[in-house]
Amino acid sequence: MPTLLRLDSSASGxxxxxxxxxDAFEQAWRARGASYDVVARDLHADPVPHLETSxxxxxxxxxxxxxxxxxxxxxxxTLVDELxxxxxxxxxxxxxxxxxxxxxxxxxxxVHVPGWTTGPTxxxxxxxxxxxxxxxxxxxxxxxxxxxxEHAVPALEVVLGTALGMWVEVVAARYTLAAEVPELAPMRHxxxxxxxxxxxxxxxxxxxxx
Length: 210
Ligand SMILES: Cc1cc2nc3c(=O)[nH]c(=O)nc-3n(C[C@H](O)[C@H](O)[C@H](O)COP(=O)(O)O)c2cc1C
Description:
Layout: E1 3-8, H1 17-30, E2 37-42, H2 70-85, E3 88-94, H3 102-111, E4 129-135, H4 152-163, E5 167-173, H5 188-208
Parallel strand pairs: 1-2, 1-3, 3-4, 4-5
Bound molecules: flavin mononucleotide.
């Protein structure tokens, strides 16, 4: 049974753009048949706590005995198992203060574990697809004054792609604030077009990725 792991982290509820994007992916995935399963984790509604101890960065068996509280170890095991069991990962990535929401970062801090999910001889997720469905209020175009200011997607690309070895695809909807911020009104059309394109791309990926 092919399994999709869907992560959301927006604090905007029904108004969230990234939730619309991950929804588009999930709907296309489910439309492939009853055997296409979905595990959804809402990191905003059901947040993962910040690390209790830095020992959680190391694989069980390589960290000092007793260094990790049992409850923390159990939660990490659940999150890593969930990720390892997923055939495809789709992550909603709102840009908050030029980075990923802290709720998403807390999940990353639990699953990026040298000796378990990454390492010279350990890469259980190598080649597995990870789709980053991102939305930001403004854009970060090459040559613009904000070029290089967006650190949400680049950090996730390094962790999921470079470290865990996953195949990462980024789908972005920029200028989501153009509809409500008067100074961004000239970018409204571009924002609408990017959202339309992103929804179509995610539907396409949801219908085809394995
Ligand atoms: C706390 C907060 C911080 C934000 N910081 C940024 C930012 O640094 N850069 C940006 O482009 N947009 C920023 N925005 C706008 C969001 O990226 C935008 O609303 C986007 O659509 C968020 O995804 P969502 O609609 O799924 O919540 C911020 C929004 C919030 C709520």
